[in-house]
Specification:
heterotrimer; A mainly alpha (319); B alpha/beta (293); C mainly alpha (131); B: 293 residues; alpha/beta; Rossmann fold; 6-stranded mixed beta sheet; 4-stranded antiparallel beta sheet; 9 helices; C: 131 residues; mainly alpha; Arc Repressor Mutant, subunit A; 2 domains; 3-stranded antiparallel beta sheet; 58% helix
Chain lengths: 319, 293, 131
């Protein structure tokens, strides 16, 4: 069986290894000068910092590496590529060419055949995902100083990308079994994966735990009118509120800001006198690991559910 | 090999896809050591029956046994005893012939690679060629060699000749019949062409609209059926069982009868019936009966 | 080595065709006592027919005492148990049939009528002989 799995899937496996290696090489080439900005290691420059070298490094990083964020954002498709590429052909190719009838009439019972394939290919998905995450984690070390909760951080680090990979693998494999063809299976995997990812990232993820909301009076004479999140926190929103604590919309907040600066007196005092409060809603930085664990569990759970459906379908021979 | 061992036995076997029954109420007892043809028009349920026999599809109702074992359980022992050649002899197209042999070796406990190599070299099929680059006839031969290398007790073939040209067809039959002569493997194959079956088969199963129309040893069947021609008679009771088909012209009638051992009335002549005529009569009868139900 | 052939369109069961061919070959001396018939497998692989058909033909030939099967070595033609016929007698019979056929066609019979007539006469002759 091992030989068969290798022989059948080596093309995809090798293509993915080449892809991950190329991404890794590109990240090293682009990332090395970025690392060079922090000769003593980026981890020692966590803001706020007074170290001069760190401040220079952070400033340069912000100015010269603004392309890093969209580049990393694109890499969100890599776990999808790994999972879909290994999952879709698993059954679709056999069904497309009729070879399932060849494979399942040898002396290996089909459940054992399926189990061996699932273990090997899901394992490969996780392994490739780990290599990918490793490369990204190294590349991101300096960028981690700006926080890790956004799409270029949270979604690309820790075990999260591996969970995404497994999810993509499961959708593609199940879609392949249902649609009996590889190409529609890829298409389905892309659509479902992207939809679920966006839904979870924008709607579900902020609610993994109740966010912290801080509401306070604006101290007269304060230079900053609004509250700012700490650099590594996940800022979900901030603005002004009326005396009862009711949040203003972003537009009303901006209008109040303009009124205050045009008032002719100290803006903070102006707002204070009008009974305006300021607020911020955020997740503190130390929730990152917990959130990543919840996210990963969710996706691994979804993958397990889809694969269970696949096994059930093959078992009852509804093919 | 004992004379009355059964290679395939089914009891009330049926398979339903959605609301449509692909096969229904199929009870068969196919003898071991024979070459058995499963005949019927397209959509008669042949493929479904064959897939159930090799454990690819589970029955909705009824039982199926191959040499006393249920293929549905999909055990390695049961799988080892059966070789299957699906329609259009699917192969992994990007595998070389050598890869396919290795596939057979790695997925079987019992795999006679020497036998397969011998067959392939006799046919001049290069081992380093990709399966997809072989001719249709060669692909069929490779698929057959793989199935035979399992040294199965029952070899099941779904429309093996349908996609082959006449020469490839002859060569395929030569290999197949050679294997029967050498190993005594029981062969069950489906076909929608009755032509040429007589040279190859001992036993016949005619399937129509998911039902078994007639089955039995071909020589017995031909011996039991006769074509009677005589003066026109009124349509006899169709369900009497002995008249399979009646055709009436203005002044005479032609009857295909089974077990018609009664003495002939004056003016009646009897003739043996050809296999093709026999099969067609049963297929037509199936449609008529279906229509009147 | 003796060669069989099959006529798929003749309507004669394949095993009987094989039996007839051996019978005729023995009759004409093409097969001599002691000659070995092809192995079942050899016949099967050249004609692409069911081995049981060949086995059935060989069994019938054994019952007719034309041949003897020796396990492990093959099937051999027996010592002149059957009447052999000189090729001269055979061609004389054949010529007789040919001239009869020509007369039949001249008289206006077509192929089917000739076959039907032959079958009927043949059938009756056999019944009379048996009686």
């Amino acid at each position: 069986m091992t030989w068969l799995i290798w022989r059948q899937h080596r093309a995809e496996a090798l293509a993915l290894v080449v892809l991950i290696a190329a991404i890794g090489a590109a990240l090293v080439i682009v990332g090395q000068p970025m690392h060079d900005l922090f000769p003593n290691g980026a981890s020692r420059c966590v803001p706020p910092t007074t170290d001069r070298a760190c401040i220079v490094g952070l400033a340069t990083l912000q100015q010269s590496y603004d392309f890093a964020a969209p580049m990393l954002a694109l890499l969100n498709f890599v776990p999808l590529a790994i999972g879909a590429f290994l999952g879709a052909p698993l059954l679709a190719r056999e069904l497309e060419l009729g070879t399932w009838q060849l494979a399942w009439t040898q002396a290996v019972p089909r459940m054992r055949w399926l189990a061996a394939k699932l273990v090997a290919l899901a394992g490969l998905t996780v392994a490739l995902g780990a290599a990918f995450t490793g490369a990204v984690a190294w590349f991101r070390q300096p960028l981690d100083l700006f926080g890790r909760f956004d799409i270029t951080g949270f979604d690309l680090s820790g075990i999260v990308p591996m969970a995404y990979g497994l999810f993509a693998f499961a959708i593609a494999a199940l879609a392949g079994a249902l649609l009996r063809r590889s190409l529609p299976a890829y298409a389905t995997a892309i659509v479902v994966f992207v939809t679920v990812r966006i839904a979870v990232a924008t709607w579900l993820r902020p609610q993994f735990r109740a966010p912290i909301t801080l509401t306070q009076e604006i101290p007269p004479g304060s230079r900053e009118l609004r509250l700012a999140a700490k650099p590594l926190d996940w800022n979900l929103g901030e603005g002004f509120a009326d005396a009862s604590g009711k949040h203003f919309s972003e537009l009303s907040s901006t209008i109040w800001e303009h009124k205050a600066t045009d008032a002719g007196i100290d803006p903070a005092t102006y707002l204070h006198e009008h009974g305006i409060l300021r607020w911020i809603t955020y997740h503190p930085a130390d929730r990152l690991a917990g959130f990543q664990l919840i996210e990963s569990t969710l996706y691994v759970g979804l993958a397990a559910l889809l694969l269970a459906l696949l096994v059930w379908r093959v078992k009852r021979r509804a093919l | 090999m004992t004379g009355n061992e059964q290679a395939l036995a089914t009891e009330g076997l049926g398979k339903r896809y959605g609301k449509k029954w692909a096969l229904r109420g199929c009870t068969l007892a196919l003898p071991a050591g024979k070459v058995i043809a499963l005949v019927g028009p397209n959509g008669a349920g042949k493929t479904t029956l064959l897939r159930m026999a090799v454990g690819l599809v589970a029955p909705t109702v009824g039982t199926v046994e191959v040499f006393g074992q249920s293929p549905t359980e999909n055990s390695p022992q049961a799988l080892s005893r059966v070789g299957f050649l699906a329609q259009d002899h699917p192969l992994y197209r990007h595998f070389t012939v050598a890869d396919l042999l290795r596939f057979g070796r790695s997925c079987n406990v019992r795999f006679d690679e020497g036998l397969a190599l011998k067959r392939l070299s006799q046919l001049d099929i290069p081992l380093n060629r990709r399966a997809g680059a072989l001719s249709g006839g060669q692909q069929a031969q490779v698929a057959l060699a793989l199935a035979l290398a399992k040294r199965p007790d029952l070899l099941v073939l779904d429309e093996p000749l349908a996609s082959l040209d006449p020469l490839a067809r002859l060569e395929f039959q030569q290999t197949l019949m050679g294997a029967v002569a050498a190993d005594g493997v029981t062969v069950l194959f489906s076909s929608h062409v009755v032509h040429e079956l007589k040279q190859v088969c001992d036993h016949l199963v005619v399937l129509n609209h998911g039902h078994v129309a007639v089955q039995g040893d071909i020589d017995d069947l031909l011996g039991q059926h006769r074509l009677l021609t005589g003066p026109r008679v009124e349509t006899g009771p169709r369900k009497s069982g002995s008249v399979i088909e009646a055709n009436h012209a203005d002044r005479h009638s032609t009857l295909l009868v089974r077990d018609g051992r009664t003495a002939l009335l004056p003016g009646w002549q009897e003739q043996p019936v050809a296999l093709e005529e026999l099969v067609l009569a049963y297929l037509r009868r199936g449609i008529d009966q279906e229509a009147t139900v | 080595m003796f060669h069989f052939r099959l006529d798929a369109g003749s309507g004669v069961p394949p095993y009987l065709q094989l039996v007839h061919q051996v019978r005729q070959a023995v009759l004409l001396g093409f097969l001599q006592p002691g000659d070995r018939l092809p192995l079942i497998r050899e016949v099967v692989e050249t004609l692409a027919i069911n081995p049981n058909t060949v086995a059935k033909a060989y069994r019938q030939l054994e019952q007719e005492a034309l041949v003897t099967g020796r396990p492990g070595s093959g099937t051999f033609v027996n010592e002149a148990t059957a009447k052999t016929m000189s090729p001269a007698t055979y061609s004389a019979l054949r010529r007789g049939l040919e001239s009869w056929l020509r007369r039949a066609y001249t008289a206006g019979l077509d192929e089917h009528a000739v076959n039907a007539l032959f079958a009927t006469v043949h059938h009756q002759t056999r019944i009379e002989e048996a009686a």
